[in-house]
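Key result, reporting period 2: structure in, sequence out.
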């Protein structure tokens, strides 16, 4: 004869221990609990695959990419890569490679795309209006002063 197996009949959810009220669910109380379990199960493999795929793409140089000075791979958004892969902020990266703090490290075509997107959605006008109301004036006693490698700057210094 064929194989037989036992079906586990649960009355509470494996994830949240809530009672299973929907007839078609046997193990989880809802789709959200089932998806949470599947995500925990398959997420590490998916992240590893994405990382391998992105590293393969990053080995190819292109005029619309910039090179990471740490790992010598090519990316459109170097600051994002540095933050995610190397665990440092864009400012720390710029200080490491002695790049000007006020200059961006974004590929030219990506910068143009983001600039047009901001203009289309009205962020430029909104930023100018809101910025004037909230910006500190130089010498304002309310402005927080902090130090960085012996250099004193106020919050009005942007990078």
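The corresponding designed sequence is given below.
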């Amino acid at each position: 004869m064929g194989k037989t197996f036992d079906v586990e009949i649960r009355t509470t959810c494996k994830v949240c221990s809530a009672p299973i009220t929907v007839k078609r669910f046997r193990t989880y109380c809802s789709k959200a609990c089932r998806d949470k379990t599947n995500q925990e199960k398959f997420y590490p493999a998916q992240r590893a695959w994405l990382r391998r795929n992105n590293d393969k793409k990053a080995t190819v140089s292109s005029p619309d990419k910039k090179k990471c000075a740490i790992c010598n791979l090519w990316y459109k958004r170097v600051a994002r890569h540095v933050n995610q892969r190397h665990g440092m902020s864009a400012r720390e990266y710029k200080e490491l490679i002695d790049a000007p703090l006020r200059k961006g490290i974004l590929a030219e075509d990506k910068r143009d795309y983001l600039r047009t997107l901001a203009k289309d959605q009205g962020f430029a006008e909104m930023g100018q209006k809101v910025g004037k109301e909230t910006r500190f004036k130089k010498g304002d006693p309310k402005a927080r002063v902090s130090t960085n490698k012996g250099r004193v700057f106020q919050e009005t210094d942007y990078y």
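DSSP finds five helices and four strands in the chain. The beta strands are 66-67, 74-75, 145-148, 151-154. This case is discussed further under Risks and Mitigation.
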